[in-house]
Amino acid sequence: MDSMKIYISGKYFSRSEAKVSVFDHGFLYGDGVFEGIRTYDGKVFRLRDHIERLWESAKGIALEIPIDEKEMERAIHDTLAINNIKDGYIRLIVTRGEGTLGLDHYLCHDSQVIIIADKLALYPRELYENGLEIVTASTIRVNPSMLSPQVKSMNYLNNILAKIEAYKAGCAEVLMLNSRGEVAECSGDNIFIYKRETLQTPPAEAGILEGITRRVVIEIANEIGLKVKESPMTRHDVFTANECFLTGSAAELIPVVKLDNRTIGNGKPGEITKKLLALFQKETKK
After folding, report:
1. What is the per-residue pLDDT for 150?
2. Is 152 a catalytic residue?
3. Is 169 exposed, middle or buried, given 0-12, 13-18 or 19+ CB atoms closer than 10 A?
4. Which of 141, 272, 276, 282 fits a disulfide with 176 by CB distance 3.0 to 4.6 angstroms?
C-alpha cells in the first residue's frame, strides 16, 4: 500500500508521508474543491469535462488554482503512470491553503493541488446483476440558494450524514430529497427513472450536482432516440417507475430495484438500464 505515490503541489510522496498543514483551510473548514475521475485502460474518461468543472467549482468559491489546466492534465497522467494504474480512480483536490483559525480566506496561502490515483472498489458485482435496494434519507439536500450544488466542494457533510442513514438501514445508497420534498439525488450518485417510454432525471434546480456520467447517459439516450426529460420528480414517480438506476463516476450505471422496501417495476434490473449500461461501457473504450 505504501508503494502508492501521491502528488502534492508538484512533488510525490508515499501514502504515509503525504501530508498537508493542519492549518490548511481545506482541513479546517472543508474549503476546497475536488473531482472524482475514472480511467479505463490508461485513458482518462471525459478528462476535459472534469477539468472544466473543477475550474468552475473553484471560480464559484473564489479559489484560484495555482497551476493551469494543461499542467493539471500532465500531472494527472504522470500520477497514473508513476502508480502504474490503467483502470482505476483519480481523486483531484485543490485546497484553499494554509491560513489562520479564522475564516478569512485572504489570509490563506500555498493552495495545495493533490492527486491520488488508486484501484477502484466498485459496488459488488451481484448488485449490478440483482439491483440495489435504497431508502429515503431524512437528511435534506442543501438548498441551492444556500450553496450551489454545482460547486463540488470538499465539505461533503450533507452527503455523509445521508450515507450514514443508508448504512444504518443496511443499504449501499440512499435517496435525498430537497426542501420541497422533491427527489434530488443520492449521497454520491444521480438518479434516473424510466416510465412511459421516457427517461427522467431531476433538473439542476432540484439541488443536484450535474454529474459527468449523468451527462454522458443523457447524450447516449438522445443518440438512440430515447425521450429524455429533466423535470421535478417525487418519490411517487420512483415508486411507480418501470425502471430506476443511479449514475456516478465510480458506479457507472447501477440498477435500483427497491425504494423504502417497495419494489420498482418487476424487481429486476430493466432492459433500458442494461442497454444504457452496455452503451456507456462501450463509450469508455473509445
Report:
1. 94
2. yes
3. middle
4. 141
